[in-house]
Amino acid sequence: MATEKEKMIAERFYIATDPQLTAERTAARKLCDEFNRTTGDELEKRHEILNRLFHGNMDMTKPAFIEPPLTVDYGYNVTMGPGCYMNFNCCFLDCAPIKIGKDVLMGPMVQLYPPAHPLDPSVRDGLRGPEYARSITIGDNVWIGGGAIILGGVTVGEGATIGAGSVVTKDVEPWTLVAGNPAHLIRRIEKGYKSPHEKP
Asked: What does the similarity note say (predicted)?
């Protein structure tokens, strides 16, 4: 019989209050607390903590620069490519895999939310009922504006930009700008494109 952890990672219904999952969340919270107490001149210590938090799934040749505070659920479901930057207060609820490509930029308070609950309240049953999670994939060279929320099951294509405050509920095509709630296509991006706000 599958464990609750195995069900969670397989994107099936699972019970989040399972003792093993509770213990793993507690361990991740302790590492987040340790990371969040570091200062800007402790980069080596930060990288070491992040490597433990993500269970070696962060590219250490060019490790991510993440501004504390950071919150994750488990850590081991996060994979991160080289050269990424995350601003303050990012939150990754990694009940299902979160795959982040290289050179990804995130503004403050970006939230990645794989988990969800049944719509039927009699099945949802407060803390007693099951939940489920869907993976999130973010391609290379993506820029996610501050306060954006990406829901489970979404893939963000390479080179895409997500406007600040957007709620992304469906896949984002490569080399596009999306914004809004729910996020929708604003424009396609050509290589070399400059925003009207950029100085020459």
From this structure: Belongs to the transferase hexapeptide repeat family.
pLDDT tens-place string over residues 114-124: 999 999 999 99
Strand pairing report for 78-80 and 161-162: unpaired
Is pLDDT above 90 for 178? Answer: yes
Between helix 43-53 and helix 19-36 the angle, nearest 10°, is: 170
Query: What is the structure's pLDDT at 193?
Result: 65
Strands (E), 44-119: 65-66, 70-72, 78-80, 85-86, 90-92, 98-100, 105-106, 111-113, 115-116
Token duo for residue 163: 């406007």
Residue 26's contacts (CB-CB under 8 Å, 6 or more residues apart) are none
The residue length of the chain stands at 200
Peptide bond into 130 cis (omega under 30): no
**20 φψ region: left (φ > 0), alpha (ψ -120 to 50), beta (else):** alpha
Query: What is the rounded CA–CA span in Å between residue 44 and residue 22?
Result: 29
d(C-alpha 11, C-alpha 78), whole Å: 15
Strand (E) or helix (H) holding 31 = helix 19-36
- Confirm whether 197 is a catalytic residue: no
